[in-house]
Amino acid sequence: MKKFAAIVLLALFAVGCASALKKESDKISFEYEAITRGSYKKVIVKQDTVITIKDRDLKDVVTAGLKNGEWNSLLKSLERVNLEGLNDIKAPSVKHQVDAAPIANLKVIRGDKTYQSKSFDHGNPPQEIKDVVDKIMAASDFKKK
After folding, report:
1. Angle formed at CA 17 by CA 129 and CA 128, multiple of 5 degrees
2. Which of 26, 32, 96, 142 is 20 to 30 Å from 105 at the Cα level?
3. For helices 130-139 and 70-78, what crossing angle results, to 10°?
4. pLDDT of residue 119
5. What are phi and psi of 50, to 5 degrees?
6. C-alpha R_g of the chain
7. Per-residue model confidence (pLDDT) at position 51
8. What is the pTM (predicted TM-score) of this model?
9. CA distance 108 to 130
10. DSSP for 32-51?
């Protein structure tokens, strides 16, 4: 009887944890933006939706669902990022400072807290967030550059 009770409690605990993780992932969203004087790209990713904005006037906006497993893969990549230190990560190159590359940045919104990276070159994110940025871009409607 004790073993049965322990198994039932363990099962209830596991279900509760899975439910809590799902609720926490509902409160996470990502925003990636790459801009120059002549172009604008923004991708917003939420648990079941990807919004790709291709111009400042919002005339070219594509909304789509995430493909199977993309959200979980993105969350797994996020686990390897220190969100508190996101703004301290240095860009590997600075072409965006002389208009040789679009200025890019990443925002991660978790609950009511927003974490934002420093600016970096679009197409060359810092290694610490590269996997997250690559997955966001892969989920978007943009062609890879």
Report:
1. 10
2. 26
3. 160
4. 97
5. -125, 125
6. 19
7. 96
8. 0.79
9. 14
10. EEEE-SS-EEEEEEETTEEE
For range 16-45, the mean pLDDT: 79
Distances (CA, A) of 86 to 25, 61, 71, 73, 91: 19, 28, 20, 19, 11
Per the CB < 8 A criterion, the answer to whether 37 and 16 are in contact is no
Helix (H, G, I), strand (E, B) or coil at 78: helix
Q: Name residue, tokens 């409160």.
A: 27
- C-beta neighbour count of 34 within 10 angstroms: 23
How far, in Å, CA of 31 to CA of 74, rounded? Answer: 13
Q: What is the pLDDT of residue 75?
A: 97
- Candidates 107, 45, 52; CA nearest to 70 is 45
Q: What are phi and psi of 143, to 5 degrees?
A: -80, 140
